[in-house]
UniProtKB/TrEMBL annotation:
It comes from Thiomonas delicata. Residues 139-333 form the Integrase catalytic domain. Pfam families: Mu-transpos_C_2, rve. PANTHER family: TRANSPOSASE RV3428C-RELATED. Belongs to the transposase IS21/IS408/IS1162 family. One of its GO terms (biological process) is DNA integration. GO terms for molecular function: nucleic acid binding. This is Transposase. Residues 11-90 form the HTH IS408-type domain. It comes from the Bacteria.
């Protein structure tokens, strides 16, 4: 380890006592508390530089340091290490300075030249030289990013105006180790835009990192707690699909995602600034214009490190990424529903079948643009193609109960028997409801709704309404309900086909006129 330099104030005092006072080296060393050899060294440097005391007195400490203590040049007998490459290699998982020092020593031995022999630095000096190099990169706390570990995502502040009056929002993603960045224009900053753009970014990178780090947008985070942030169900489903984790940065701490903050700045300078005078009609036009500029940005050489973002990504990040799933991610929402007695659940007024053993249980629906998945305790128990037909049924025959099971609780015969308790017309209406459907189970809810009308209107009125419905040729629950609501059953019961006069003593009768 090199000895620390002498304090410039003591150095100036030593020169004053020697050049002006004429004292001996031992006297100066005793007076200033330094060694005699140090006094000899710096007095010799001053004499060699041709300095006298008036010249030294007129110089400030910085000028005197430059005059006497110019930056030492690395010794020619030591092989110089490529600390820029070493800084990048340390981002690999499991890489250490000790291993890199051993490789440096081996490389120095392989490149040995008898005419100009050099030797490697000792390990302690090697580490010190690297620390000095790393401290010169940036005066802030440096975060160490492992290869393929983190992907930082954010939206840029500036937006791009469209000719239709709307604005395109710019999504930016950056890999932690290499800084390889991705940019995409989206219509807004909804959860669908965030996750859709992130999925596009993962496809662009060709792999999946271990951790995705956003800030705390309300579109993704239900509760922006500093210690245990709560993500919404769709974000958790996204993470499960790609086999990674989503960990929001601390709120109001942009330094936690400095990589993407820098990438946002670069996108604003090298992409958005060049597109400021161009008029765009659609979001796709913006993305088409950004594509070549994004490639140029990733190919730009680093100022202090070797290579560029694209080359470092190809060398360090890309091999460490996890593979993309075979199936593309789809936007999904979640909803809790309960299975009805007809072995169906309802979503958007359409009914989908589930195994009849789950009747009465609360299940979770995962709804995508094309499918409805039914999940029970983390296991998918049914999957159907999504249908927008209200009032319709999507039924798998295997989900329905066996007709021959004596212990089956809900059967058509039981519903018909309930209708017979009300009246003949009610039982006939229930029978017609069951016969009208392809599967009798599809009519279970309508039959129960019909029979429940007796609780509000009574058995007599329900039977009268069913008589009128049979006369009109209908057996729909809604028609019978409307008959009761409009009191048409009462009007039908009070109407007689013909009026007859009662007998009376004052009435002479037809025989009187004969």
């Amino acid at each position: 380890m090199a000895a620390p330099r002498i304090n410039m104030r003591k150095l100036k005092d030593a020169l004053r006592l020697k050049l002006e006072g004429g004292q001996s080296h031992q006297q100066i060393a005793t007076a200033l508390g330094i060694s005699k050899g140090v006094v000899t060294k710096y007095v010799g440097l001053a004499v060699a530089a041709g300095l006298d005391w008036p010249t030294v007195a007129a110089m400030d400490e910085a000028a005197l340091e430059r005059q006497l203590l110019s930056a030492p040049r690395p010794s020619d007998i030591y092989a110089q290490a490529d600390y820029g490459r070493i800084h990048q290699e340390l981002r690999r998982k499991g890489m250490t300075l000790a291993l890199l020092w051993e490789e440096y020593c081996a490389q120095t031995g392989d490149e040995h030249d008898p005419e100009h022999p050099v030797k490697p630095w000792r390990y302690s000096q090697f580490c010190e030289n690297y620390r000095q190099f790393a401290n010169r990169l940036k005066r802030s706390m440096r975060q160490v990013h492992r290869a393929g570990e983190k992907l930082f995502i954010d939206y840029a502040g500036p937006t791009v105006a469209l000719t239709n009056g709307q604005r395109a929002n710019i999504f930016v993603a950056a890999m932690g180790a290499s800084g390889y960045c991705f940019a995409l224009a989206t219509p807004a900053q909804t959860a669908c835009d965030w996750l859709g753009a992130t999925a596009r970014a993962l496809t662009f990178f060709g792999g999946v990192p271990q951790l995705i780090v956003p800030d705390n947008p309300r579109a993704l985070v239900k509760s922006a707690n500093r210690y245990e942030p709560q993500l919404n169900d769709t974000v958790l489903d996204f993470a499960r699909h790609y086999g990674c984790s989503v960990l929001p940065a601390r709120a109001y701490h942009p330094q936690d995602k400095a990589k993407v903050e820098l990438s946002v700045q670069l996108v604003e300078r090298w992409i958005l600034a060049r597109l400021r005078k161009i008029q765009f009609a659609t979001i796709d036009d913006v993305n088409d214009a950004m594509a070549p500029l994004l490639e140029y940005l990733n190919q730009r050489a680093f100022q202090k490190l070797p290579g560029c973002r694209a080359s470092v990504f190809k060398e360090i990040d890309a091999p460490a990424l996890m593979a993309l799933p075979l199936q593309a991610w789809e936007w999904a929402v979640f909803k809790t529903v309960r299975v009805h007695i007809d072995s169906h659940i309802e979503f958007e007024a359409h009914r989908y079948s589930v195994p009849h053993a789950l009747v009465g249980m609360a299940l979770e629906l995962r709804i995508t643009a094309s499918a409805v998945e039914v999940v029970h305790r983390g296991q998918r128990v049914a999957s159907h193609r999504r249908c927008a037909h209200p009032g319709g049924f999507t039924t798998v025959a295997e989900h329905l109960p066996d007709r021959h099971q004596a212990q089956a609780q809900w059967t058509p015969e039981r519903l018909i028997h309930w209708g017979e308790r009300v009246g003949v017309a009610c039982a006939l209406t229930v029978r017609r409801m069951l016969e009208r459907q392809r599967h009798p189970e599809h009519a279970y809810r309508a039959c129960l709704g019909l029979l429940s009308l007796s609780k509000r209107y009574g058995d007599a009125r329900l039977e009268a309404a069913c008589v009128l419905a049979c006369a009109l040729g209908t057996s729909k629950y809604t028609h019978i309900r409307d008959i009761l609501v409009n009191r048409r059953d009462l009007l039908q019961a009070s109407t007689t086909p013909e009026w007859t006069s009662p007998s009376h003593a004052h009435v002479r009768g037809a025989d009187y006129y004969q």
